[in-house]
Each structure stands twice: as structure tokens, then as C-alpha cells.
Automatic annotation (TrEMBL):
Residues 197-271 form the HTH crp-type domain. The gene is crp_25. Transmembrane segments: none annotated. It holds the Pfam family cNMP_binding. GO terms for molecular function: DNA binding; DNA-binding transcription factor activity. Gene3D superfamilies: Jelly Rolls, Winged helix-like DNA-binding domain superfamily/Winged helix DNA-binding domain. Coiled coil: none annotated. This is cAMP receptor protein. Keywords: DNA-binding, Receptor, Transcription, Transcription regulation. Residues 62-165 form the Cyclic nucleotide-binding domain. The keyword DNA repair does not apply. It comes from mine drainage metagenome.
Length: 289
């Protein structure tokens, strides 16, 4: 018990927020058609030393606050995997047998419609967990999960063994339920984006959501988003033409609201972006389709 108390004390002192997780740049080529690793090219897997792995696991909300004995059990069934951009973590219809914790990089959840067009329903990054909803509901994965950059680092946990722990560690049941809610919220976020109004408002909703979840160096008016989304991906999320998205972003840059570099986006007037969601007919918002 004393060991667990000391371990929890160290955890509280060292816990890092989502902003502290690594966030590699996402290149344009990440959004080409996803590919499944061939039999001879599998995602890089390796085992971490137990102490290092437990330290990683403690950083995630899903497992934070668990006693050391529980973390050791989780660590025994956890593998560190690295995916290259465009590779599937899983495909729609695959058996849900893993819970995935994103340590670095970004993953998108997609499905193809009857015409074969890809639709993005959620973006997930450092600190997020995936796979809980499908496993908990006893269903197969409802969408594809695709790595967006060349070094997406994941902690992959055996879902069946994880599901046995809440009986002995009730706090984990609450965390798993929160994980299901978070996954549901990602789809609600998508609904909020497509129903926000005109294209500038949809773009504003998307960017505000991403800044709230992954933004760093935030203040009331400024933030840095360590994520580069190409026009093709943004247009897919918004349900808009690429040309329209380009015009909107160009307008923001000319107005001094936004600048970009090789690693992400600098927002210097977030209050202006938020105003778009409150003003459908203002001078700063032009109706585009």
C-alpha cells in the first residue's frame, strides 16, 4: 500500500497534459488513400521495460489514478507500435480486440460511401484512446482508423484482458465509460461542424475544436496548433470544395488571424474566429458554398 501511495504521488507530480504529448507534423501525403501493411511489412512493435511503460500509461486519462498493481497488469498486455502514414490501424468490420492509446501523432476515423468517396468522422491525437466503444458495445469496428503521419506511436492493449480489471478496480470502469463518451463526442463534433452554417463558419468550428483539444501556448486570443491539415482533408471534413476552403483560409491570413509554418498553425486572433460562429451576416463573413 505504501508503494502504491508513493507511486500515485509521483504520478500526480509528473502527469503531463495533452499538450505535452508529442505532436509530429502531418504532411499532405498522409491523406492519400490508406494502405494495409503487407504480410512482409508490419507495424513496428516493441516491448518497453515495465517501469518505462507504466510511466507512459499513467499519462493517459483512461488509466490515470490506477494503483500500481493494476498498471502492472495492464502493462503486461500492452505493446508499443509505430505506424507509418497511410497504414490502417484497423479496417471497418474488423473484430474489436484492442484498445489503443495515442502517444504521438494523429489518427483519422473514416468510412467510404456507396460512391467510394472517403468521409472523415473524427480526428484523434496525443492523449486520446480508440477502440473502447466498439469493444464495449460488442460490435466490430464501425470505421477505418488510418495513421496520418509517418511515426504514429501507439500503446496497444489487449481489450479482453483490460475488460476483466474493472471488477477489481472500479475506478477503471468509470474511465472506460468516459472513453466511450469521448468517442461519441467526436462524432457530435462532426455534426456541429457540418451544421455550423456556411463554409467559413464550418471552418471556424473545426479549428476551434482542434485548438481546444490539441492547442498549445494558448491564451484568450492566441494559440498554436501543432497539426498541418492539407486543403483536401479540410474540404472532406467540412463537405466543401477545395477552392472554397482555400479562399476562406486566404481571407484569414490576409486579415492577420492565421499564419502557418511547416509544423502547424499560429492563431493570433481567436476571438475573430469565434465571432464567425455568432455572426452569420456580419461584414467579416461572406457566404460561400
Amino acid at each position: 500500500m505504501q508503494d502504491e501511495a508513493r507511486a500515485n504521488k509521483r504520478y500526480k507530480a509528473n502527469k503531463r497534459p495533452n499538450a505535452a504529448f508529442l505532436s509530429p507534423t502531418v504532411p499532405r501525403s498522409a491523406f492519400f488513400r490508406a494502405k494495409v501493411a503487407s504480410a512482409g511489412v508490419q507495424p513496428l512493435q516493441q516491448r518497453l521495460q515495465d517501469r518505462a511503460l507504466i510511466g507512459h500509461l499513467r499519462c493517459f486519462d483512461l488509466l490515470s489514478g490506477l494503483p500500481l498493481t493494476a498498471l502492472k497488469e495492464v502493462a503486461a498486455d500492452t505493446t508499443l507500435c509505430t505506424y507509418r502514414r497511410g497504414e490502417f490501424l484497423w479496417q471497418r468490420g474488423d473484430l474489436a480486440k484492442h484498445v489503443v492509446l495515442i502517444d504521438s501523432g494523429f489518427v483519422k476515423m473514416t468510412r467510404r460511401d456507396r460512391d467510394g468517396a472517403s468521409k472523415t468522422y473524427g480526428l484523434f491525437g496525443p492523449g486520446d484512446s480508440l477502440g473502447i466503444f466498439a469493444f464495449w458495445a460488442g460490435m466490430r469496428y464501425p470505421s477505418d482508423a488510418v495513421a496520418l503521419n509517418r511515426g504514429v506511436t501507439l500503446l496497444v492493449i489487449d481489450a479482453i484482458k483490460l475488460a476483466r480489471l474493472p471488477e477489481r478496480y472500479p475506478v477503471l470502469a468509470d474511465r472506460l465509460q468516459a472513453g466511450v463518451i469521448r468517442f461519441t463526442e467526436a462524432f457530435i463534433d462532426k455534426i456541429e461542424i457540418v451544421s455550423a452554417g456556411n463554409i467559413p463558419q464550418r471552418l471556424a468550428m473545426l479549428m476551434i475544436q482542434l485548438v481546444d483539444r490539441y492547442g498549445v501556448n494558448r491564451s484568450s486570443e492566441q494559440a498554436y496548433l501543432p497539426l498541418c491539415l492539407p486543403l483536401e482533408q479540410i474540404s472532406e471534413i467540412l463537405g466543401a470544395r477545395i477552392e472554397t476552403v482555400a479562399r476562406c483560409l486566404a481571407q484569414w491570413k490576409r486579415a492577420g488571424w492565421l499564419s502557418t509554418d511547416a509544423h502547424g498553425c499560429h492563431f493570433t486572433h481567436l476571438e475573430k474566429v469565434r465571432e464567425l460562429l455568432l455572426n452569420c451576416n456580419g461584414d467579416s463573413v461572406s457566404r460561400q458554398s
